[in-house]
Specification:
Helix content is about 30%, strand content about 25%. By secondary structure, it is α+β, with helices and mostly antiparallel strands. It folds into three domains: about 80 residues, Roll (SH3 type barrels), CATH 2.30.30; about 110 residues, SH3 Domains (SH3 type barrels), CATH 2.30.30.40; about 190 residues, Zn-dependent exopeptidases (Aminopeptidase). About 20% of the residues have low confidence.
């Protein structure tokens, strides 16, 4: 009997130690109070950062130690500084959220009444022939209805390139790159009700052939992801041929990622740092792509820290044709120089990388370090075509002076655009 009891205790101890997660009921629920806080591998400020939480994110803490709380992320134990959190009562929080949902105004009230919510919205109009209205901010989410060109809609919140509005009293989402801000704000002119502008359910199938967004047919279980991507590319190319030759990227959407930012300066040179150069280059690249008809999303537009995971999420949550992360290189060897372009896997990503790298060298005449495979998070975590481009070494005194110049950045941008054009059109 005593032997069985000992065996039982040992089993329970092992079960606790080796389980990757713990039931939430055994911990305390907290909410992030600061703008951002990190989950770290150990309870120490110098420990490696695993991921980042943002304000109002919820987390269950199962253990505390000297001001740090232990939780789990992807099955691994991680730590968070408790002074960045505030304990919440699950039951009260759920009741509060439920109450807020119960009093959520219906779409007709938002669009026809001068409510506080409507005054905080922004009026947009649809610039694409047909735009899907979805039940979540994701290109694979269920299509609720459709809007047509020049329809108007009020957007109350944006998230990773998606805008939130309401349809039949329920929250719905629209890809923002398919919309343009209206000249009149939502509070200066009453928006047309979304019910009057969406396509009727029976016409959704008819409009799918003209749709700008890519939508896989849920009834066709045999259609592979490759088939969908190929069809998407063909549709984009067909649409492009109908456009003026000066707008080769009409119908295309690019996410441009200025590397680093905020507390992360990137490579630091004697005259500048990487985060400043990448933002400057990204804004110029965005304008040139827009001039050629593309819609563009920047992962950051100012000196703000954005986690690697969020950068990839911005790309994944939209109908992105290509994600381009811009960087400037550094090396302990001062003589290191040149441009290199990274991709995660072979196939189309490698083809795109080869095209952009060749064009960059052709336009800048810098040393060709080639297109290379790498598992950078913004590439590995990206479901879309994705590249990371190193546009020169700021650790090289001569190249640092060069890459800061307007003439070099214009050449580099023209090279990237030409490389994209060679691949997509």
């Amino acid at each position: 009997m005593k032997y069985n009891i000992i065996i039982g205790i040992v089993f329970l101890v092992c079960l606790f130690v080796f389980l990757p997660t713990v039931q939430a009921e055994s911990g305390k629920m907290f909410k992030v109070e600061s703008a951002a806080t990190e989950l770290r591998e150990a309870p120490a400020q110098e420990a490696a950062v695993v991921t980042e939480l943002t304000k109002d994110d919820k987390i269950t803490v199962f253990q505390d130690s000297d001001g740090w709380g232990a939780t789990f992320y992807n099955g691994d134990k991680v730590w968070v500084a408790l002074d960045q959190l505030a304990e919440v009562n699950d039951i009260k929080e759920e009741k509060k959220e439920a109450a807020e949902q119960d009093v959520q105004p219906a779409v007709s009230e938002i669009d026809t009444e001068s409510s506080a919510l409507a005054k905080n919205g922004q009026l947009y109009h649809v610039k694409a022939p047909v735009v899907n209205v979805r039940n979540a901010p994701n290109q694979n989410a269920e299509i609720i209805a459709q809007l047509n060109k020049d329809d108007k809609v009020t957007i109350f919140q944006d998230s990773y390139g998606w805008g939130k509005t309401y349809y039949n009293g329920k929250e719905v989402w629209i890809a923002l790159y398919l919309l343009d801000k209206d000249s009149e704000s939502a509070d200066s002119k009453k928006s047309e009700e979304i019910e009057t502008t969406v396509a009727a359910p029976e016409t959704v199938e008819e409009n799918k052939q003209e749709e700008t967004e890519t939508t896989a047919d849920p009834k066709n279980d045999e259609k592979t992801e490759t088939d969908v991507e190929s069809k998407h590319k063909e549709e984009k190319q067909t649409a492009t041929t109908k456009q003026n030759s000066e707008k080769p990227f009409a119908g295309y959407h690019f996410v441009i990622d200025p590397g680093h930012g905020g507390k992360d300066p990137g490579a630091i040179g004697s005259e500048t740092n990487e985060k400043t150069l990448t933002l400057s280059t990204a804004k110029k690249l965005s304008e040139q792509l827009k001039n050629k008809g593309a819609s563009v999303t920047l992962t950051r537009t100012d000196d703000t820290y954005i986690s690697l995971e969020k950068r990839a999420n911005i790309s994944n949550s939209a109908d992105t044709d290509a994600f381009i992360s811009l960087h400037y290189n550094s090396s302990a060897q001062k003589e290191a120089r040149g441009i290199e372009t990274y991709y995660y896997d072979g196939g189309e990503s490698k083809q795109l990388a080869d095209s952009v790298q060749a064009s960059l060298i052709d336009h800048t005449d810098l040393h060709n370090r080639g297109a290379k495979q790498a598992d950078f998070h913004v590439l590995k975590g990206n479901k879309q075509l994705a590249l990371l481009v190193e546009l020169g070494f700021i650790s090289n005194p001569e190249e640092q002076k060069l890459v800061q110049s307007e003439s070099y950045q214009e050449k580099a941008i023209t090279g990237i655009v030409a490389g994209l054009e060679d691949y997509f059109t």
